Amino acid sequence: MSGIQLHLMRHGAPVQTGLMLGHADMPISEAGCSACFERGRRLHVAAIVSSDLKRARRPADLIAAWQDVPLHYDSRWRELDFGQWDGAAPADLPQAELAAFWDDPDRSAPPGGETWAGLCDRVSAALAEIDRSTLVVAHAGSIRAALSRLLGWDYRQSWSLALPYTALVSLTVWPGSKRTAQITGLIA
How far apart are CA 54 and CA 90, in angstroms? Predict the structure, then answer.
């Protein structure tokens, strides 16, 4: 049984960095879009899937057109929903609540936001539909959720991996009722 090549790429830098950008639809910067396109256009894939948010969607559009492959937008690849914190600078948030969130995002989700388990569940459902060599252009949180589910990592392990803008994680994924994967490349 052969595996499927899966590439998970974080979008490029948005027009304003340093914010808790979850579902806030901030556009990508020109430099961020160019960097993402340059990294993604070199991959050999049969399809591209993208978060439906602008900062992932725009470079995915360009890469799909360059490679002439099908592109599908999927909201399940969005970043964690930060609820009332979405779009805020971390320094402007209640520090005790923010620390509790970073320590245990299932027990201390952002007010009106999503738990880590909720993010992992929706990303897991999206992963189940990938059946060919695919590039996913998404967000740091959804990429970490995918790695958590595919590699069996817990929350802390998935957050120990640095995923700067345009980071690319390449994996071989073996299909089946319980998908397994192996990292084959990482470009940060």
Answer: 22
